[in-house]
Design goal:
It is built from one helix and seven strands, in the order βββββββα. The chain is α+β, with helices and mostly antiparallel strands.
Length: about 120
Amino acid sequence: MTEPEFSARGVGITRWPRSLTRAGEVRIEGGRLALLTSYGSEIDSAPVTAVRAGRPWFAGPDEAVATVNGTRYRLTLHGKGRDGGAAEPTGPERSEEPEASGRFLAALKRAAGRR
């Protein structure tokens, strides 16, 4: 088994208007994007060439929106999962959050062969 091109755990996956999981996984492997629950069950998957993703103006710095098989999902790519209302991280931890959504979008473009 090969190493995935991108993998993020603790991802909040929402299909408007309801949350599907607060600690799921986004994985790009073998030319496919897979959205998984915290138990590893597949929510949705598609070839990366058929996925549209971006960071719209209304999304937070750690969020991205992906359209997979015609369904829009909001992905909250925070590294530590939901913290039950604890204080917002500051300092170096805070600066890493936006990088997760940026790394996801860059990995998706690389896997699809788009620049």
